[in-house]
Amino acid sequence: MKLFIDTADVQEIRDAASLGLLDGVTTNPTLVARVGRPMREVLTEICEIVSGPVSGEVLATTYDEMLVEARELASIAPNIVVKIPLIADGLRAVKTLTQEGIKTNVTLCFSPIQAMLAAKAGATYISPFVGRLDDVGHEGMELVDQILEIYGNYEVDTQVLVASVRSPNHVLTAMRMGADVATIPFNVIGQLIKHPLTDVGLARFIEDGRKIKQEA
Ligand code: E4P
Question: Is the model's pTM score more than 0.85?
């Protein structure tokens, strides 16, 4: 499974990339607003750090305006993936952009039928928002399971990108289900690495290692 980081914070991206395990980046308008920098500037810098797919989202909500913005975003770097909201104009835009060879990530997906429509439009990625579904009392990962089942039925090429990840458990379940990608906030990437028994075991090895040096 590919691991993306879900942030517009360039330092977080540098730190995650230094692990050597980072396959790509997703951003959204909220994440870009949080760092207080213009969208184009941030995406340009991110694409200099990461060679894998970097998602940047359009702000427009009408077909014509989305196309203008999408083409502008795609001109930033060859690895830009344009994020388009899952609305009627968005699906139309995805169809056109796909014909132009521009990669798309259809965002704000909350139902398996929406996911199938995005695939029919030619989306490169579909982003089911699992954490936001959990927040309103649904089982977010159930949506991912249903999308994978439906895509499997029709041998769909669209990649399932698990988004709105809140915990290592989301990542584990995504891996077990065979999702293509999980996009993960920086703090959760840290949680994936750590295990208390690793820390306890290492402390013991360090302590015993000192004894070996003393004996030598
Ligand atoms: C995905 O691409 C989105 O940027 C993101 O995962 C949304 O997560 P949130 O629900 O934590 O805002």
Answer: yes
